[in-house]
Amino acid sequence: MKTVLAAIDFSPVTEPVLGVVAGLARALKARVLLLHVVPAPPPMASYQISEDEAAQLLAATERDAVRRLGNLAGCLTGLATETLTATGVPADEIVREALGNGADFIVVGSHGHTALYDLLVGSTTHGVLKKAACPVLIVPSAVAIAKAKPALVPEAKLAAAAS
């Protein structure tokens, strides 16, 4: 059985990612793995928070992710769906989970940030693309789709010109 791993970050691109994953999984008769990576906590010394408090915060974040992934899995009716959480660097963990679970495809969302943002903060999608051993499908954000459609679809250009 094929396996599709979907990287879920609970941002607005999550819904389009789920739509692509559902369609792909149905077409391939594949199982779906919904993965959320909780970013590794930064050094807490400067925040005046104890290790115990940091551990409690991380555990609460992980519990919330498990609950939210369960809700999303419930939306994928008729598909064999599992949920996974990991903690660490998102791109690294996505690739690690894909390898460990024999994923045939990884589906990630793109937020459409600028190159400067990606340079300063990093891009999970870029990191996954560089390291993945299987095909990666990138789902654009709704904003990116809306911006691109007039330029890509001749009918949209005509409609915009007629207005």
Key words describing this protein structure:
single chain, 163 residues, alpha/beta, Rossmann fold, 7 helices, 5 strands, 20% strand, globular, disordered C terminus
Query: Quick one: CATH superfamily?
Result: HUPs
The neighbouring-strand order within the major sheet is 3-2-1-4-5
Q: What is the number of beta strands?
A: 5
What's the number of domains? 1
CATH architectural designation: 3-Layer(aba) Sandwich
| Total number of helices | 7
Protein described:
The protein has 163 residues and is an alpha/beta fold. The protein has a single domain, classed as HUPs (Rossmann fold, 3-Layer(aba) Sandwich). It is built from 7 helices and 5 strands; from the N terminus they run E-H-E-H-E-H-E-H-H-E-H-H. A 5-stranded parallel β-sheet has the order 3-2-1-4-5, with helices on both faces. Helix 3 packs parallel to helix 5 and helix 6 crosses helix 7. The longest helix has 25 residues. It is globular.
Give me a quick take on this structure.
The chain is α/β, with parallel strands linked by helices and 163 residues long.
Summarize the helices and strands and which ones pair or pack.
Layout: E1 3-7, H1 14-28, E2 31-39, H2 51-75, E3 81-88, H3 90-100, E4 105-110, H4 115-121, H5 124-131, E5 136-140, H6 142-152, H7 154-162
Parallel strand pairs: 1-2, 1-4, 2-3, 4-5
